Amino acid sequence: MAEVRLENVSKIFNERIKAVDEVSLTIHDKEFMVLVGPSGCGKSTTLRMVAGLEEISAGKIFIDDDLVNDIPPKDRDIAMVFQNYALYPHMTVFENMAFGLKLRKFRKEEIKSRVEETGDILGLQDLLDRRPKELSGGQRQRVAVGRAIVRKPKVFLFDEPLSNLDAKLRVQMRVEISKLHQKLEATMIYVTHDQVEAMTMGDRITVMKDGIIHQVESPANLYAKPVNKFVAGFIGSPAMNFFSGELVENGTILFKNKSFEIQIPGHLSKNLIKEKGKKIVLGVRPEDFSMQSSEKEEYNSIEALVEVIEPMGSENYLYLRTDDQNFIIRTVPSINVKINDQIKLYINLENIHLFDEKSSASLISLL
Ligand code: ATP
């Protein structure tokens, strides 16, 4: 059992740089929690505070029921895998993995059995006698993970462990780490700036920006119900499209801007009457446009110019323009459009997002 709990944790560097600002977060036993956010958002600092590599300026960190604020890293029963995995070049794979156990004065037989067991788990059995320079990038990263596993820690911490690998290997290792999580049933905290890694690996995802947590949710809920415009734009690729406009009442509630107007679905409009006249940002994901309408109303459509077509194989991305706005949609590859075509699109109204332009908060995620 290993739960990690942060209570109002802050980190201030040099008495002025607030890297982490009153973060409160519970990572449950056996959970795979991803911390994600743009560069400088404070995710690595948060992880390093859990590891004990960075002093905490304020707040408390618990591992299970133990307050670990003043406990040195080696006594926290955690293992960390870094982006720069820094294996010892003069040692074999076996020796690299055994090193931490030797330092902790484990018996020889215990070390051998743990390293061999870990080698089996990670598919390194045939490489135990090789030195790091005789390994591929993915194999080296696996040894770095192995070094963490042999210790059987309560909690694993990963800091962008895949960012030095090429794209294909990254996908492979992503799957391997997910499988490892299932096999070891360990608590894992994983830092990345890559939202695809976050979405594919996390049981839950914590989205951070400017040292603050914006949302903690499962991947599916984060995608469907982002609490603000930042989260909505950060999660999803290609990113959500945003259109500025306002809410007006004309028998029903409409979102209106220079280029188009759409009718807000009934179940949302009741709650939005009070927002009438406000400056609003409409959010529509690239997959929520279609060229065929199941509805007859003309005003739920957008006319747009096709500027670029990107064929991705399984789908196409179309880069489009209305009067004052660029946006992007996903379509099936067989779609019959050409550059410079003027096309008419319909928005899937069930999946729209609306944000207050001033505060960026979602007006519908909590309805
Ligand atoms: P990245 O993805 O670029 O690694 P991050 O989200 O992990 O970014 P942190 O490394 O946690 O961000 O940094 C958060 C903030 O704290 C940044 O503004 C950074 O410049 C600052 N910072 C980090 N380490 C130090 C330090 N040792 N001294 C001063 N400022 C620091």
3D architecture notes:
- It is built from 9 helices and 20 strands.
- It is of the alpha+beta class and 367 residues long.
- Strands 6-7-8-3-9-10 form a 6-stranded mixed sheet, with helices on both faces.
- Strand 9 (204-209) and strand 10 (212-217) form a beta hairpin.
- Helix 2 (93-103) crosses helix 3 (108-122) and helix 2 (93-103) runs parallel beside helix 4.
- The model has no long low-confidence stretch (mean pLDDT 91).
- Bound molecules: adenosine-5'-triphosphate.
SSE topology:
Layout: E1 4-13, E2 17-27, E3 32-36, H1 43-51, E4 58-63, E5 66-67, E6 78-82, H2 93-103, H3 108-122, H4 137-149, E7 155-159, H5 167-184, E8 187-192, H6 195-201, E9 204-209, E10 212-217, H7 219-224, H8 229-234, E11 241-250, E12 252-256, E13 261-263, H9 266-272, E14 279-284, E15 289-290, E16 301-311, E17 316-322, E18 325-331, E19 342-347, E20 353-356
Parallel strand pairs: 3-8, 3-9, 6-7, 7-8
Antiparallel strand pairs: 1-2, 1-4, 4-5, 9-10, 11-12, 11-14, 12-13, 14-20, 15-19, 16-17, 16-19, 17-18
The structure holds adenosine-5'-triphosphate.
